[in-house]
Amino acid sequence: MPGFFDKNKKYIAILALFLLLFWLVTIQVKAGRFMVLEKPVLAVSGFFERIITGTYYGIAGIGRGYVFMVRAERENRRLAKEVGNLRLENQIMNELLSENERLREALGFKKLNPPASVTAQVIGRDSSSSSSTVTVNKGSLAGIDRDLAVITPDGVVGRVHAVLPGTARVQLLTDPGSTIAVRVQRNREEGLLEGKLDRCALKYVSFYIDVQEGDLLVTSGLDGIYPKGLPVARVTTVRKHEASSFQTVYADPVVRISRLEEVLVFKK
Length: 268
Prior knowledge:
alpha+beta; 3 helices; Thrombin, subunit H
C-alpha cells in the first residue's frame, strides 16, 4: 500500500482537492455558511467549467466544419454537372446558329444572282493523290447536269463532273483536271487557272504580265461554265525566270475546300 500511494500521490491530491471543493459547495448551499470561501470556490469551479465548455464547443465546431465541407463538396459536384450540361447545350446551339447563318448566306447569294441555282449539301469527299472531288445530295432529279458551275457565297468551288438521279460528283478547282478562265481583278490580265491538289497555278503566264502576290483572281466567263466576276483564288507566290519567257504563279482558293458543307449549283 505505501508503494501505491507513493506512485499515485499526484492523482490522489487532485482527487482530494475536487472532493474538498464539492464538500464546501454542498455546505454553502445547504447552510448558507462559509461565505468567505464563496469567491475562491466559484473561481476554481469556473476555471474547470471553462475548460470543459471550451473543449465541448471546439469539438462541436469541428463537427460543424466537417458537415459544411461535405455539403460544399456535394454542391460543387452539382454545379460542375450543371456547367457541363450548359456547355454542351451551348455547343449545340452554336452549331445550329452557324448552320442557320450559312443557309441564310446561301439564300441571300442565290437571290442576288439571276441564274437559277440549286442548294445542295456535301455528303462525301474523295481527295486522293490524283483527284479532288466531293459528292453532293442533289442530282438529275433536281435539274443538275454535267459541267454546271458550283460555288459558295465566298467564291468558286468547281464544276459538276458526274450526275446520278439523287447525287452528283463535283470536280473541285484544285483537281489536276480542272481549268478555269480567270483574270486578275486589279489589272484585268487574263489566264487559265489549273488545279494542283493542294493549291492552284496560273498556266502560261508571260514574263511581262503584271501579277503580284495578294492579287485576287476572278472568273472571266470565257470558258462558258462560270459566270463572270466570281472570286476564285488569291495569288500567293510569283517567281520570274530570267531564262524563260514565262513566270510561275501559285494561288490558294478563296473557298475553304476542307470545310465545305453547303454549295450552290448554277443551272444554265
